[in-house]
Amino acid sequence: MTALTNVVSSVLMLVGALFCLLAGVGVLRFPDAICRLHAAAKAQTLGVVLILLGTELQVSVKFAWALLLVAVFQLITVPVTGQVVGRTAYRTGEIYRPGLVMDELADRLAADARRESGEPAEPREDAQERGNG
Amino acid sequence: MTLRYLVQPLWLLLLWLMLWGSVSAVVLIGGLAVVIAVRAAFRMPAVDLRVTLRPLRLIGLFWHLLIQLVSSATSVAWAAIRHGGHVPAAVMEVPLEEDSDVIIAATVFFTAMSPGSLVLEIDRERRVLYVHGLPAGTRAEAERRRRSVRQAERATVSALKEAPKEAPK
Known about the structure:
Chain A is mostly helical. Chain A has helices at residues 2-29, 33-56, 61-91, 104-116; one strand at 100-103. In chain A, 72% of the residues lie in helices and 3% in strands.
């Protein structure tokens, strides 16, 4: 039984470590802040959760609860950081435009800016039909 | 009504007990004191909880979430190896159908977990999400991601159904 637990938890931890490593590769290789966020938000989270699961099997119940909390908070904070950092990165121009197939947020922001500056209202073009210029 | 006010203190107390990993008189009383102090120091606005929880579907949703997390981690890890610095991405506009803070927040959460998408901007007034998709090499692929976000919204709605608004007096 202990041998089995040991095997399961080492597999979980090694796979978790692999995902953390790949997240690091993503952070290094991706072209801009938002793409890097993808690596940090997904691969890294799964890596940490798997490592925590592997650890759960090795510790007493008393500590297992605290580890569970770490996993839960990891999961619920990731979407928030992703959105806040992503929004800031986008608005400060930290985005690699040549890599974008389409950008409907830019179209929307341009349309809003036009309206605010009081220029003659032109009919709203369908954002989906336009390329990213 | 009363339940709505008890949810937050009970959750804080549970959190405290989990941190200590034991239930003894000292921990319990200390926890109650901390909960009262936290409630007094950080007054949170009341959440508009006009939703009905469907526990079975919620469990199904969480199971789905874990599978999504595994597949999204795999897809982004593969993109890091396969594409690296030349990864194609797209920013898509996704209109939402629901008009509830809770459901929109939950949809954003599930979108962040689903493969290859990250919410960049929430336009609450227009009920539109702007989602960054990666990898998204073609328009067809971007459309597929757009559909998956809408699917996440539908799944959320099926687990948290909003109660009908009160009739005007």
